[in-house]
Amino acid sequence: MKKVNEKYLELVEIAERARELSYSPYSGISVGCALLTSSGRVYTGANIENASYTPTVCAERTAIFAAVLAGEREFSAIAVAGGKRGEGVTDGFFPCGVCRQVLSEFASPELVVLTAKEGGYDEYTLGELLPAAFTKDKV
Ligand code: THU
Predict the structure, then answer these.
(1) Residue span of the structural domain in which 25 resides
(2) Which CATH number goes with the domain that contains 92?
(3) How far, in Å, from the CA of 58 to the mean position of ligand 1?
(4) Is 110 a known active-site residue?
(5) For ligand 1, atom 6: residue with the closest CA
(6) Residue 19 zone, left/alpha/beta (φ > 0; ψ -120 to 50; rest)
(7) In this structure, are residues 59 and 46 in contact, taking their beta carbons and an 8 Å threshold?
(8) Residue range 8-34, pLDDT digits in tens
């Protein structure tokens, strides 16, 4: 029997619970996120939409900004759980390009990125999801 990787199961479950706080009346897509800092703390986020559409902020960025505003700038993993509101998580729900870029501002390419799926998660690194990133050493 294939062994299920459980190392980050708790972080993924926290992201799934954060998903319940999503404010997403326009897309009907609810997303939750759990960001693990190098110091071991977890910051959660959920997508927050707006009637004017473009002010919408993704779950990942609400978590990253909450962490940064709490004085945290070193992260080791981020879990994302997304799908249709009121339904289970959608397999392969990845952070969007903007959120990958925002993550790369504070995290190394080794940052672990977890996408929730029914009964578990898939594991990637930020470097895999955002190769050849534009980084602050170029500015
Ligand atoms: N969304 C996220 O929260 N994270 C992503 O990485 C992708 C998209 C949200 C934004 C919007 O509220 C909804 O999902 C549909 O795009």
Answers:
(1) 6-128
(2) 3.40.140.10
(3) 5
(4) no
(5) 95
(6) alpha
(7) yes
(8) 999 999 999 999 999 999 999 999 999
